[in-house]
Amino acid sequence: MGISKYAYKGKRRFNISKFDCGDTDGIKKRGDAVDEFVANLLEINKKQQKLYSDRREGVIFVFQAMDAAGKDGVIRTVFSTLSPHGVKEYCFKVPSSEEKSHDFLWRFWSALPPRGFISIFNRSYYEDVLVGKVHAFYKNDIVPERMQKADIIEERYRQIVDFERYLYETGTRIVKIFLNVSKNEQARRFISRIDTPRKNWKVSSGDLKEREYWDDYMEAFETMVNKTSTEISPWYVVPADHKWFARLLVSRIVKKTLEEINPQYPTLDDDTAAALHEYRQKLIDSLGKEGYKEQEKQPTEFADPSLIPAEMLQQELLQKQKEEDQRIKEKGFKAVRKLLAQKYIISSTQEILDAIATSDEEEEQPAPSEGEDDLPDRDVQEIRDHIKEMDERDSDDDAA
Ligand code: ATP
Ligand code: MG
């Protein structure tokens, strides 16, 4: 359940040649990761709501990788449960001529998240010490003499660390994720993209050309991690040869980051709580006796608002939230078992949410002859076979 093994915070050196891209942290197969993955997504979803209402801190998740490492699939599955109003993805491509005429960090300022928001950087300013280093693009820039003399890449590492520190100190946290795929696995994924017509659009000759610079890229990734990992803005190097594991690990990282931020719903002061109670009473009066039925378990503290300390109200709300979380979690597991029974794999978190959303309606229907938790042996065997088949294929299919 840990992520520290994959974290670089400026103390431990990252050695890319010793890194096992096929590592799965002891988890034997995809099927064994499902429950934890679902629990993480539900927790991330809940924490994002708090982050958004708290409006205290913004977060950027930076993704860097070689082509075909699975960036897009990871982003889609791990972040798709989030409410779109609080999250935005930015894909950074080859800089435009306008962008090139500015300093290398210029184009990122407008993508910084307001406090309470999450920005996903699908590629980032780290390209300027990766592809920019491998091909020495900076040599084409027309710059003042002092820059011509400088070791530009070396300076960029420092400038990036300074930039991230500045953002941290002013309310934005940056977490960096390097999806590390092996050279052989990249080749297998390229072949699969060439062989499968509906994946052809993903292949570009440029990607194949960059592969020729593999060793230079590995050096650039290793140096990047070692030069820009800090306690406040760590790098996580994620083994990416098994897509299901990369997704699981990234879900752990996102969950842990949000836990560290520890966002809270804003609390009401006593005066506002009392004012709200007054409004509430007015609304009830306007509906009349028939129009509004008091719920059985009406919080007693509403009886006399002047006697309610805000913490009591808070306690009550927290307790309700806890019960709700537990209920959703249980529904989540049930729904996932069902999805598996219907022969889906978790390629989209939306599938999970849809299943959870509809499971209430289904519960109201007459009980099926076999309980959901008690799938007939035949079905259990089918599910097992299906998972086994998926594990063996370790599909490169990113399409939902
Ligand atoms: P996908 O292929 O899944 O759509 P992608 O991120 O690979 O996603 P592409 O349009 O294929 O998108 O590639 C973007 C390209 O832009 C990459 O080759 C990347 O190296 C390049 N790029 C990004 N930033 C810079 C930069 N600062 N300087 C030069 N090239 C850059
Ligand atoms: Mg690409």
What are the defining features of this structure?
400 residues; alpha/beta; Rossmann fold; 2 domains; six-stranded mixed beta sheet; 6 strands; 50% helix; globular; disordered C terminus; binds adenosine-5'-triphosphate; binds magnesium ion
Describe this structure in words.
The protein is α/β, with parallel strands linked by helices. The protein folds into 2 domains: 4-261, Rossmann fold, CATH 3.40.50; 309-399, no CATH class. It has 14 helices and 6 strands. The chain has helices at residues 34-54, 71-79, 97-100, 131-134, 145-149, 152-169, 183-195, 205-211, 214-228, 243-261, 270-291, 310-341, 349-364, 377-393, and strands at 7-8, 58-65, 87-91, 118-122, 172-180, 235-239. The chain has a 6-stranded mixed beta sheet with strand order 1-6-5-2-4-3, sandwiched between helices. The radius of gyration is 25 Å and the shape is globular. The structure holds adenosine-5'-triphosphate and magnesium ion (MG). Residues 67, 72, 91-95, 122-123, 127-128, 131-132, 137, 204 line the site of adenosine-5'-triphosphate (ATP).
